[in-house]
UniProtKB/TrEMBL annotation, chain A:
Positions bound to ATP: 84-91
One Pfam entry name: ParA
Gene: NBP35
Identification of the protein by name: (Perigord truffle) hypothetical protein
Function: Component of the cytosolic iron-sulfur (Fe/S) protein assembly (CIA) machinery. Required for maturation of extramitochondrial Fe-S proteins. The NBP35-CFD1 heterotetramer forms a Fe-S scaffold complex, mediating the de novo assembly of an Fe-S cluster and its transfer to target apoproteins.
GO molecular function, a single term: 4 iron, 4 sulfur cluster binding
UniProtKB/TrEMBL annotation, chain B:
Record-listed ATP binding positions: 14-21
Function statement: Component of the cytosolic iron-sulfur (Fe/S) protein assembly (CIA) machinery. Required for maturation of extramitochondrial Fe-S proteins. The NBP35-CFD1 heterotetramer forms a Fe-S scaffold complex, mediating the de novo assembly of an Fe-S cluster and its transfer to target apoproteins.
Pfam families xrefs: ParA (PF10609)
Name listed for the protein in its UniProt record: (Perigord truffle) hypothetical protein
UniProt organism field: Tuber melanosporum (strain Mel28) (Perigord black truffle)
Subcellular localization(s) per the UniProt record: Cytoplasm
A Gene Ontology biological process term: tRNA wobble uridine modification
GO cellular component terms given for this protein: cytosol; cytosolic [4Fe-4S] assembly scaffold complex
Family: Belongs to the Mrp/NBP35 ATP-binding proteins family. NUBP2/CFD1 subfamily.
Record field: transmembrane: none
InterPro entries attached to this UniProt entry: Mrp-like_CS, Mrp/NBP35_ATP-bd, NUBP2/Cfd1_eukaryotes, P-loop_NTPase, YlxH/NBP35
Gene3D superfamilies per UniProt: P-loop containing nucleotide triphosphate hydrolases
Binding site for [4Fe-4S] cluster: 195, 198
Amino acid sequence: MVILKVPVASEDVPQPSGAAPKLVAPEPEHCPGPESQQAGKMDACAGCPNQQICATAPKGPDLDIPLIQARMATVAHKLLILSGKGGVGKSTFTTMLAYAFAQSPKTQVGVCDIDICGPSIPRMMGAENESIHSSSSGWSPVYVADNLGIMSIQFMLPNQDDAIIWRGPKKNGLIKQFLKDVEWGDLDFLLIDTPPGTSDEHLSINSYLKGSGVDGAVVVTTPQEVSLLDVRKEIDFCRKAGIKVLGIVENMSGFVCPNCEGESQIFHATTGGGRALATEMGIPFLGAVPLDPRIGIACDYGESFFDAYPESPACEGLMNIIKGLRGQVGLPPSQDGVEEMDES
Amino acid sequence: MLENVKHVVLVLSGKGGVGKSSVSVQLALTLARAGKKVGVLDIDLTGPNIPRMFNVEEEKVHQAPGGWIPVKVGDLGSAGDGVGSIECMSLGFLLRDRGDSVVWRGPKKTAMVRQFLTDVLWGDVDYLLVDTPPGTSDEHISLAEQLRSVSPDGAIVVTTPQAISTADVCKELNFCKKVGLDILGVIENMSGFVCPHCSTCTNIFSSGGGAVMAEQFGVDFFGAVPIDPAFNLMLERQKETTDEVGLLQRYGESKLFPVFEGITEKLLAKTEKAVANGSGNGEGG
Ligand SMILES: Nc1ncnc2c1ncn2[C@@H]1O[C@H](COP(=O)(O)OP(=O)(O)O)[C@@H](O)[C@H]1O
Ligand SMILES: Nc1ncnc2c1ncn2[C@@H]1O[C@H](COP(=O)(O)OP(=O)(O)O)[C@@H](O)[C@H]1O
Ligand code: SF4
Ligand SMILES: [Mg+2]
Ligand SMILES: [Mg+2]
Ligand SMILES: [Zn+2]
């Protein structure tokens, strides 16, 4: 009997790559990626109907990258919201972060939803019935406030419940369009909400944005080990891909009963939760947000939890996290320093 | 392919973190308690949770002539006569380090899913439960394509009650329809939490969304599973507990077990009946 070898190799994180050539057949299983430098030359390419095309396609840099860079040149800070685990609150956190940044009318915020199969941003921001308009200079984002624009595949579906049954390349193509063809304009922040895992979407967003300078990633987790297990993998991915992890946010930590105010742990941190993981990985721990049913309701109805319950412990937790995050990207702790002076 | 497997049931959801893996585990435990031989195939390649949940994280998969031998969940203990068995397969078993990421684009995931379906040497299995990642992409398309030849019994679709979740899960139901996969039933998970201090029930993630969705789509509703932190602790503490009580017996004491007994009953009624009518996967496809 043989113990199997590890199927994972770090060269699975490809370097920024060229444009994909037009293929005559689907890629076979060990395809290095038709847009990669090795396309058409690997073992897997032997016998592949595309080999000729891939081998002869120009391996120069992807011509779309300069176009993406031009769009991104007017975006000051680009943040990825990541997690290996689903349902931990990536989209919720992205939404709240966007609302928090946009509280100052001078701050321009964009949210790009690259969760192609499970887009949540439009509903969470109360814009699920909107659709995208295009002009000569590109697609315009859907604005939920003067200074807050969003982009999501949800806006492009004929029916709300349509399943997006797409393999990787199609998803990658759309993500590229979100960066290249959307008129983001002058932004202080572009927040990118992602699906769980470490696959096509994550590789693509990383390679498309590499040249434009991403500030880094905020990694969201819940306290229990089953979640931390997957989040460790996400951090491992960030390391391999050269994405800076700005910090870990722990969501759904503890629940306070609205009736008796007794506290319960729903997702027990049997291994120390997000804080211990941050220490283990040498990453800043940005803070924790408790479970609050009103967050779920605000998300379902597309309302800003921030504006509705500014006094709640969840809001307080969030404000702390945002302060820490601003520090990580080299900004003063609050929007423009003015608010802090007002308070004193 | 899957010669020794009688029934194939997929556990799906458009949304992550709704409890697909927890539901797979509990279906496996409940079926095993009912004397069934269960296989659990974890095709969540980038977030495999099954090994941890069954406390077999340290196990490795062995290669035998003709394929991979799945990992037996050893510490089931005895929960009375006629107890079945559980074996599982997951990418988690193939990693050098549990923290290693699997960064794969579609074609590689497709190949792995295919290999998991063709190369695992399941023993005689009554129910093969397939735990999946969220979404409707490479893994799901491959799964649906690969399984076509064995005509799986269908899918159990898991959601949590809130609209953010059901919105994504509706997409999954439409996916099932598109690829011709029967929907056996919908489970609403994390439906309400009873405060241990005052016994008041709070719907932390709202409630009722799953039943409404099932009705909208004209599919069966299998049941609502409440939030039970003790269940998570039970799984997490398997390592520390040294007494003779195995997982099957311990789960029998869980608050969630009666709920899953009800769900399993519905599952059995649907799938065994299908066999009687000759439309199931049959005895060895
Ligand atoms: N702190 C919280 N308290 C209560 N509900 C929350 C909290 N954070 C997120 N939720 C809810 O949990 C669900 C999953 O969150 P979501 O942001 O969609 O996760 P992800 O994007 O990681 O899949 C949503 O319905 C959301 O409203
Ligand atoms: N009914 C429940 N009560 C309490 N915790 C639950 C329940 N169902 C799932 N969980 C916990 O929620 C988390 C997410 O569930 P999981 O099964 O991993 O979801 P998925 O496989 O859909 O991503 C896990 O930590 C799990 O233990
Ligand atoms: S020739 Fe090589 S790179 Fe091109 S599609 Fe085939 S396997 Fe992929
Ligand atoms: Mg999301
Ligand atoms: Mg899972
Ligand atoms: Zn209480």
